[in-house]
Amino acid sequence: MDSIIGRSQFVSETANLFTDEKTATARAKVVDWCNELVIASPSTKCELLAKVQETVLGSCAELAEEFLESVLSLAHDSNMEVRKQVVAFVEQVCKVKVELLPHVINVVSMLLRDNSAQVIKRVIQACGSIYKNGLQYLCSLMEPGDSAEQAWNILSLIKAQILDMIDNENDGIRTNAIKFLEGVVVLQSFADEDSLKRDGDFSLADVPDHCTLFRREKLQEEGNNILDILLQFHGTTHISSVNLIACTSSLCTIAKMRPIFMGAVVEAFKQLNANLPPTLTDSQVSSVRKSLKMQLQTLLKNRGAFEFASTIRGMLVDLGSSTNEIQKLIPKMDKQEMARRQKRILENAAQSLAKRARLACEQQDQQQREMELDTEELERQKQKSTRVNEKFLAEHFRNPETVVTLVLEFLPSLPTEVPQKFLQEYTPIREMSIQQQVTNISRFFGEQLSEKRLGPGAATFSREPPMRVKKVQAIESTLTAMEVDEDAVQKLSEEEFQRKEEATKKLRETMERAKGEQTVIEKMKERAKTLKLQEITKPLPRNLKEKFLTDAVRRILNSERQCIKGGVSSKRRKLVTVIAATFPDNVRYGIMEFILEDIKQRIDLAFSWLFEEYSLLQGFTRHTYVKTENRPDHAYNELLNKLIFGIGERCDHKDKIILIRRVYLEAPILPEVSIGHLVQLSLDDEFSQHGLELIKDLAVLRPPRKNRFVRVLLNFSVHERLDLRDLAQAHLVSLYHVHKILPARIDEFALEWLKFIEQESPPAAVFSQDFGRPTEEPDWREDTTKVCFGLAFTLLPYKPEVYLQQICQVFVSTSAELKRTILRSLDIPIKKMGVESPTLLQLIEDCPKGMETLVIRIIYILTERVPSPHEELVRRVRDLYQNKVKDVRVMIPVLSGLTRSELISVLPKLIKLNPAVVKEVFNRLLGIGAEFAHQTMAMTPTDILVALHTIDTSVCDIKAIVKATSLCLAERDLYTQEVLMAVLQQLVEVTPLPTLMMRTTIQSLTLYPRLANFVMNLLQRLIIKQVWRQKVIWEGFLKTVQRLKPQSMPILLHLPPAQLVDALQQCPDLRPALSEYAESMQDEPMNGSGITQQVLDIISGKSVDVFVTDESGGYISAEHIKKEAPDPSEISVISTVPVLTSLVPLPVPPPIGSDLNQPLPPGED
User: What are the boundaries of the region Disordered?
Assistant: First the structure.
């Protein structure tokens, strides 16, 4: 095994196998993610792109080229975040696989022109590393191809684009552009011994000499130019504080990385410290000075700043640094190093002086050089102009119409005689084609146009005549001054004299000509006379001037379409605005009428006029020269009111809503008259909803006038009209709960009106024309009461700790009629508060004196249409019933939350209540009606009916139980035949038998006759239980037998003789049927189950002595009947119906005697 593993080939193949498997897994994942990118949301796309980047570029870089196009296609995505994620992917690609630069660089250039500033900033950030990696990659290529050359061209284009962005409007883009240019300057310059060293640094020293794409010198020159631009930008007066701090930091980094630029940077910092931009605020100045101090401290630590240490120290002292702090920053150097640097400083200074002197000499030489006209260049320009003019003319001379027109145009201008020059230069045309003639004529005219510098060829001439340095031939003269020929000296003297004479002559002529011109000018001044318009014109009549004015304004107004087509509609609107605001009333009213003719399309013009009036009112713009006796705000108020009235009268409903809303929301100020008009508009049925909504929005959007608009809504919240009241209260809730606008004022108003109810009669403050109740009323009406507490009830769910307490106080002190009104209005606010409101639960638990009815009503509301009441509510109600309120009605709302034992214990008290309340109770218990159908009880209908029968009659009147059972049996949908069978089956098992059992049996038999056989069996079981011992049940037994005859006759024969005698005595009508049945039985032979002679005698009516040994006669007295022990626990219920008094039970008659010694009926032994 070791030998196998030791083989390198095997290890290599195994590694390749695992690598291939890893790549395949990664490829499958990336394919799935790329498929999801098509339909994913923007946020999901960003997550998927991050996963692709992590997988492809993090662990499987060989997949980068395969999925590159899929990712780059998202560069056109509409979402900004997705495009930024693509930029991050491209940046990482250029770090991991820089050879893919030609494939991605076009996308970078495209995204640099994106519409989103965020994307542009992200691209600029990425371009820093992309440019560095790309430059290193291109330098490493031995033979760069076309793709590499194209990539370098695009990189250069990107560099130029970012350089232009240093003047971008966006502050963040400028900051990122500065940081990018910082990197470019560092990359395109040489490092020296003092440069700050970093990992992966790149400088011009790394650019190979054989690189064909770019040269060191060119890159260095470009880097120097970019540094100059940064220095210039750093010194501008309009630079922002953010850009200034960023530029300062970048220049400091450049100086640290390339100390060769240290002098320029220190000089820039010195200028900045002396002259901070005037646009900065005090806090910005402090930030800039703090940043400058920090950058200077950083520079001072660098060895390359040794030459400028004194300058930096001076600036740091000025910026607040102490001498000790500065001394700690200076790097430590030995004496040799300091001497070497001092020597280098002197050498640099000497070189600088020599260079400066050399430049001064060159400049002086250039100034001393004489210039002359460059005739060769001038001739070359003339020839080029002639060719251009000749070509132009030849194209036009080919058209006969042009030639004819030209001849006819200039024919009258020909001289009478042929000029001599024409005769000298003219050559007759012999045997030339038309093309040759056109060429010849075009050349001739072209030369003339060039002489005059006319035609299209005039563009070839330079603006100034071409000049060149005058060439002076060097004449070597070895003659000394003594050897100069006298004739030559005399000749030179004569030439110089003639030259001076000519110059004097020209000067004299010029002075004479100037003197003549001055004389002419003075004579012209003498003849000139000032022209006065008033002396040569007459004033127009006033009416005519006004007519001209109105006609001119009307023409301006009617030129609307022409101005729109010409693109000057904004200038026309400005002109009309100024005219309307500054001209007399007749012009103003005319413009107003023009606007109102089509207010929907001309509303912008109206707003321009409105704002112009506002500017005049506030003194922001020119003042009108029209004299008026009105108040300063009259023009503005009049215009605004006319706009509002015009919109209301001339627009349809839809446009009226939109335009009125715009006017009120966009008007600079709203006078009281306009607010009053809005109040009147809100009283209109069609506009009331939109008007109140507008008032609410004005309260939110116009904080200075919020008190006024809230007061308007408060007035509407107590208006007589219900629709206005509801809308106003809803908007006040929004201001109160959502926007938190004047909550204290709203609380004060609501509580003030709530307390009006405590008074015996409505106060005068309730009645006003503003509230829709102009006439006072002596007594409270239900509507007036609801108006007073309506706002308080609306705000109750949002501040229950305040309003619930006040409502309780008012409820206690008010009259019974007003209490009923309050109870009927509690539903909506209590339901909004909910059963979990701690304030409500605390009120139920405390239940102050006099608040019982209110608390009961609250419990009813909280339990409406709820399957099962809240446990906390049930607990509070149970405690309330046990400790404070001993009225069982308090338990009614929470019946569905009680246990079975609690229901059984409280049932006797419930059925003794008012019939209406008892009906409601059984509707709840049985789930009758839509209101209670969803409730779930702990007892079934069967249990309820059985519980009613087992109620102790000493605790509850028998009549109440009878009524309760009747209510149950009336619900045939619930108490079906099967349910009643179950009830009777349970009742027959009860000991002693329930008093109303036989009554229920008879009612069940009446409802469902098919129960006859079941009842027969039931009667037999009753005989076994000696039914005759309970008189009421015995009577019911006999009535049941009567109903079931003749089928029930066998039941009578099972009775003991004494009870049979009693039955026949109480029900004589049974005797014939029984006799008939007995005779039918006599035909059968006697057997053990036959009819005895004693029974036959009883049936026939013969006298038979029947002995009864029990003195009770077989009946059990009421006091000896076994009773169920009552449950001591009681549960409370709430109702607004009064309780009926309990009925007094009827006395029980004495029992009838019976013989206990009689033999048992057949089958009982």
Answer: 365-384
Looking up tokens 């009108």, which residue turns up? Answer: 624
Residue 430: the pLDDT is 61
d(CA 189, CA 261): 10
Tell me the two tokens of residue 262. Answer: 């240290």
**Does residue 379 lie in a domain region?**
no
**d(C-alpha 911, C-alpha 746), whole Å:** 48
Torsion (CA) 219, 223, 225, 227 in degrees, nearest 10? 180
The pair of three-digit structure tokens given for residue 1029, joined into one six-digit string: 């011992």
- Give the tens place of pLDDT for each residue, 24-64: 888 888 888 888 887 788 888 898 888 888 888 877 877 87
How sure is the predictor about 350, in pLDDT bands with cuts at 50, 70 and 90? low
Instruction: Tokens for 1033, please give them.
Output: 């049940």
247 and 346 both lie in a single domain: yes
450 and 329 housed in the same domain: no
Residue 770 lies in a domain: yes
Is the separation of the CB atoms in 606 and 643 below 8 Å? yes
Structural tokens at position 836: 């979990």
Tokens of residue 910, six digits: 């419930």
Residue 320 lies in a domain: yes
Q: Is the link from the previous residue into 632 a cis peptide, with omega within 30 of 0? A: no
Domain endpoint, select from 834, 864, 886: 886
Whether residue 827 is found in the same domain as residue 778: yes
Do 646 and 668 form a contact (C-beta atoms < 8 A)?
Answer: no
The predicted model scores a pTM of 0.49
Tell me the pLDDT band of 16, cut-offs 50, 70 and 90. Answer: very low
Instruction: Give the per-residue pLDDT at 7.
Output: 41
- Burial grade of 517 (CB within 10 A; 0-12, 13-18, 19 or more): exposed
The DSSP 8-state label assigned to residue 418 in this structure reads: -
Beta bridge partners of 467: 373
Q: Distance between CA 544 and CA 182 in Å, rounded?
A: 72
Helix (H) or strand (E) segment spanning residue 467: strand 467-469
Nearest residue to 162 (alpha-carbon basis) of 113, 94, 118? 113
| 440 is a domain residue | yes
pLDDT tens-digit map of 1048-1098 = 888 888 888 888 888 889 988 888 888 888 888 766 554 444 678 888 888
Enumerate the β-bridge partners of residue 469.
371
Q: Which of 886, 920, 952 is the last residue of a domain?
A: 886
Structural domains in the chain (count): 3
Residues in the chain: 1165
312 and 398 fall within a common domain: no
**286, 214 contact by CB (below 8 A):** no
Supply the DSSP symbol for 371: E
Same domain, 808 and 858: yes
Report pLDDT digits (tens) over 502-531. 545 544 454 444 444 444 444 444 444 555
Q: Specify whether the CB–CB gap between 603 and 664 falls below 8 A.
A: no
Whether 447 and 316 map to the same domain: the answer is no
What's 797's DSSP letter?
G
Cα(909)–Cα(898) distance, integer angstroms: 15
* Dihedral sign (CA 688, 691, 697, 702): negative
Residue 390 shares a structural domain with residue 449: yes
The Cα–Cα gap between 141 and 212 comes to: 10
**How confident is the model over 1006-1016, as pLDDT tens digits?**
999 999 999 99
pLDDT in tens, 299-328: 888 877 777 888 888 888 888 888 888 888
Answer whether 729's CB lies under 8 Å from 791's CB. Answer: yes
281: CATH: 1.25.10.10
Which domain range does residue 459 map to? 384-410+435-463
